[in-house]
Amino acid sequence: MDPKAAQIFRERGVEVDEITGKTPEELKAIIGEYDGLAIRSSTKVTKEILEHATNLKVVGRAGIGVDNVDIPAASAKGVVVMNTPFGNSITTAEHAIALMFALARQLPEADASTQAGKWEKNRFMGVELTSKTLGLIGAGNIGSIVADRALGLRMKVVAFDPFLTPERALEMGVEKVTLDELLARADFITLHTPLTDQTRNILSAENLAKTKKGVRIINCARGGLIDEDALKAGLDSGHIGGAALDVFKVEPAKESPLFGTPNFISTPHLGASTTEAQVNVAIQVAEQLADFLVSGGVTNA
Ligand code: MLT
User: How far away, in angstroms, is 273 Cα from ligand 1 center?
Assistant: First the structure.
């Protein structure tokens, strides 16, 4: 967590300990002392940890996803769970756009080949983004920033999102479509939705088969939204032209059948990893937790 968080807690009169590298057992042994807990992604706030958290009133996640917190167990204990839904949106959207460019021009493979002394100019024929159709699955905070940047690149943007109103779609300059329409029309597909029972495997084998031949797929949201075996089969058959995953069903993804597949790019859940985003989420989580602890104010719970 960026040190700004501790600074804000102290300025607001909240005593703070900066704790890193504790095992779950060690966290269990000390958690009873604390009224609030601010975490990033690697700390798992399990039912067991919560059982030992006798004084805990609030957990704040410096980031968007709260998948590392057992929400039902926290709610049962009356512990409020907050996230910071805005601080890393731009950064994550930029990572999705970066991966889209990387897929369009096979940048990682071209880089590896050039640095291996091969100079394979004829091997790497790319595609332009201009005039291509980008299919957005999820048009919330991050999806709408991706749409804005894609429109700036002169792409056409179609969006599938049950929560997207026609007025908001108009304001964003995107066309609201059904999932099937998106799958049939998109040259690039990017996912920006949480992992829920409704979105799990949204790009299943069946749905991947409905995509346009040559489609390129980007996922900087959550692993589990795409059937990774079906994605591998689609890349191998050539139906899918490329895929870039920042997130995997099982993380850390130390091995995957996708690794080494041509036209496949991966990064280790770097979507939110910029200095700006980490400062933003640290400031937001500290302000929200301090508000709650000092005066009971609840934001983004
Ligand atoms: C988030 O949920 O904010 C992102 O996935 C960032 C992260 O977990 O590192």
Answer: 9
